[in-house]
Design goal:
The radius of gyration is 19 Å and the shape is elongated. Helix 2 crosses helix 3 and helix 3 crosses helix 4. Helix content is 46%, strand content 5%. The protein has 2 domains: 30 residues, no CATH class; 70 residues, no CATH class. Strands 1-2 form a two-stranded antiparallel ribbon. Strand 1 and strand 2 form a beta hairpin.
C-alpha cells in the first residue's frame, strides 16, 4: 500500500463562488488507496487514527527529508522505523520525532550534498 496521500479534484463544485471573508461549507468525499470510503472530515480522521503507524511513518519520512536536505531512500527506512519506534513511548509527540531524527545515525553521519564526501560538522549544522 502506498504511504502517500493523493488528492485529486474529480468534480468541481456547483455552488456559488466564494468571496473573501465569506464562510463556506465544503463536503469532501473520496476513497483512500486501500479502498476505504471517506465522506467528510470525520471519516478521514477515523481512517488516519486507524492507521497511526502508516501516518506517523510517512510524516517521519517527510520530516527526515527536510532534516537531511535530500530525499529519504530505501536504505534510510530502517532509521525511519527506529525513529518511529523510539518516539512511540511518547505517543509520537512532535518533539520526540524531532529529537529522535536529530539523534539518528542518518542525521548525525550525513555528508555535504547528501552523498559521499566530507561529513557535516556541528558548526556547519548550527549555521544552517
Amino acid at each position: 500500500m502506498p504511504e502517500t496521500l493523493k488528492v485529486e479534484d474529480l468534480k468541481e463544485g456547483t455552488g456559488a463562488v466564494a468571496t473573501a471573508g465569506q464562510r463556506v461549507t465544503v463536503h469532501y468525499v473520496g476513497t483512500l488507496t486501500d479502498g476505504t470510503q471517506i465522506n467528510g472530515p470525520d471519516d478521514l480522521s477515523t481512517a488516519l487514527l486507524a492507521r497511526t503507524d502508516l501516518f506517523v511513518t510517512n510524516f517521519t519520512r517527510r520530516l527526515m527529508t527536510y532534516a537531511l536536505g535530500r530525499k529519504v531512500e530505501y536504505y534510510d527506512m530502517p532509521q525511519v522505523r527506529k525513529v518511529v519506534s523510539d518516539a512511540a513511548s511518547e505517543d509520537f509527540r512532535f518533539s520526540a520525532l524531532v529529537r529522535e531524527i536529530a539523534l539518528s545515525d542518518v542525521f548525525t553521519h550525513r555528508t555535504k550534498g547528501g552523498g559521499e564526501g566530507e561529513a557535516v560538522t556541528s558548526a556547519e549544522t548550527a549555521q544552517r
